[in-house]
């Protein structure tokens, strides 16, 4: 998507849908779209994603520097990281769910959320069957975004194929795709799979 106005409109619509699914509580989450000139359209800091307006989407450089005087999300550098390590990324969505927050906190010390045997695993590149496992990178939460981005970079760059998602423990999911619609599909699949895994853990009596 090359046009800022079109990107802003798509982000607004996506925010309403994700909020309607309970994936954007309060002002949580941030969404971005890569523009044709290499800059990034991204939600401003503190905006409620279910009530977004086009005026609450701004532009930053590929390095996360504001280009229009607004203040972007504090996690802008993580969006920049995704676009830097995945040439196919065209949009990044960051969501928050109850199941993901609780599951990731319950996996203290783990470096991945391992998902096995689910049909929806086929959403991921290179996966053509349910009879497989994927390991979604899981990192500890931090308010130091440069440090968090530096920790994530080798985890993402070292994958082949690159899984278009990672999770910040006790915080939320980052997922992406070549378009904002594709990124939304990955979000839906990941949040569904994570919710399934949390329910499976409860069935096994693993409640922390």
Describe the overall structure.
The chain is built from five helices and eight strands. The chain is α+β, with helices and mostly antiparallel strands and 208 residues long. The chain has one domain (4-203): Class II aldolase/adducin N-terminal domain (L-fuculose-1-phosphate Aldolase, 3-Layer(aba) Sandwich). The protein has an eight-stranded mixed sheet with strand order 3-2-1-4-8-7-6-5, with helices on both faces. Strand 1 (30-34) and strand 2 form a beta hairpin. The radius of gyration is 16 Å and the shape is globular. The termini are far apart. The mean pLDDT is 93.
CATH-defined superfamily: Class II aldolase/adducin N-terminal domain
Major beta sheet summary? 8 strands, mixed
Mean pLDDT: 93
Strand content: 15-25%
| Low-confidence runs | none
- Estimate the global geometry from the Cα principal axes: globular
The tally of beta strands, per DSSP, is: 8
Helical fraction:
25-40%
What structural class is derived from the secondary structure elements?
A: alpha+beta
CATH domain class: Alpha Beta
The tally of domains stands at 1
Rg, nearest Å: 16 Å
Nutshell version of this structure?
This protein has 208 residues and is an alpha+beta fold. It contains 5 helices and 8 strands. It has a single domain, classed as 3-Layer(aba) Sandwich (L-fuculose-1-phosphate Aldolase), CATH 3.40.225.
